[in-house]
Amino acid sequence: MANSNGVEGLHVWSSPEGGCKIDIGKQIFCNRSLNMKNILAVGFDMDYTLAQYKPETFESLAYEGTIRKLVYDLGYPPELLEWTFDPKYMVRGLVLDKKRGNILKMDRHKYVKVAYHGFRELSKEDKVGTYGNTLIRDSFDEPDYALIDTLFSLAEAYLFAQLVDYKDNNPGKVPEGADYSHMYKDVRAAVDLCHRDGTLKQMVAKDPKRYINEDTSIVPMFKMLRASGRSTFLVTNSLWDYTNIVMNFLCASHTLDGSLSCNFDWLQYFDVVVTGSAKPGFFHEENRANIFKVEPESGMLLNTDNGTPMPQVGSTSPEVLLKGLNKSCRVFQGGNVAHLHKLLSIESSSQVLYVGDHIYGDILRSKKVLGWRTMLVVPELEREVKLLWELRDMRKQLRLLRDERDLVEDQIHHLKWSLKFESFRDDEKQKMISALGELESQRDQARLAHQQAQRECHQKFHKIWGQLMKTGYQNSRFAHQVERFACLYTSQVSNLSLYSPDKYYRPSEDFMPHEFHILPL
After folding, report:
1. Active-site entry in 47, 186, 271, 362
2. Which residues are the signal sequence here (predicted)?
3. Domain boundaries in the chain?
């Protein structure tokens, strides 16, 4: 079978009993066995999980809003307003060195493999001199480093790189005392200002279709999970007003003229909705945040006793009856995971599967702190696995070139050892020295051919940063985090609808993105 890109053979069986094939770009990959029959509740994040934002519009909107805050609120030069944003330049999994103004990509062992100062690539000598000569490995964590692990962080990473170059070329134009670290702090402050004044969400609310991808498989996925008898819940940091607009768009509530109808029909797909959750703090049971019931029609917050509605003053009824609202779904703001478990009657945290996009905000906390089962949404994966298939011949050639180089280097090592520790006649020794010279020439040619082929393959994925899940031949830092904390991972949340709700996910013995070397031909 061939897909729209003309790629053949990119299919896997969804399950032996399913009898249907799934494009490999939509496959769900498994790190740890997970039997869905043991899952009683499936939960979702909203932003960048259910709602996939368009980088060319949404991230550009975030970038432009941040620039305006830097200029009008934080004293940066007005010429920044003329800057533009390239949404394809940065990728997830990078690390920003705040003190030095560098952007790094490293492997799972925290060795820096690609490094840029602003938009200037560091030489191998500078890279090794800065990051490769320490006796104690740097942790590359806060406060000196910033981790670019969400798609929303790509715009601020790009802006940081621009400011680094700007400071280097115009040292007198940045605010006094603003070193690289201070500039990053200002970027973060500007992003927070955009969130606090509602700039971004107001624009999205006016025209959701401009900023959010439509996914017609989301509602069938909800229906499938609900029909299987499982509870479903939504936990988002967004507040109720914005959540209702986005979920209406995703669940396609339209009027007769095609315009978006804002109602509460989408609530029928959930048992519990928690807005304003303040993740990752929400995942700590000791977090004593109050939980309020949200009245959907007005957005009013009502007091609760650990999630149980309390009688309002002047009313003998603990519930505010809402016309036309599906009573089976309860909407809340705040609280913590203990409240959620109580509302869903969850007895064991391993009965919960949570789907999110943020390794630290969604996946790591829910996995390490709670023991929830986890699924990470990685939109970039769809393109990456298709490229892995398309480039299988090139990657096989890379392996052959590497093997050729290694073989020659072994022969050189053997000859040098023999010349140093064994005795030979002068004529034999001269032949060996001549052979050594030829081998060293072959090694240099093989090394150059391998480096050129590797760079060409690297740039097929991304011109600057290469493959998301690899750094050279090692797993990338991002892939390492995915492997450690995500039980499952996939390109989009609605891929769940392609599988049986009772599927037993097992780690594949065939090929997975972070283990991929050469596919059998």
Report:
1. 47
2. none
3. 33-52+212-311+322-378, 55-206, 380-493
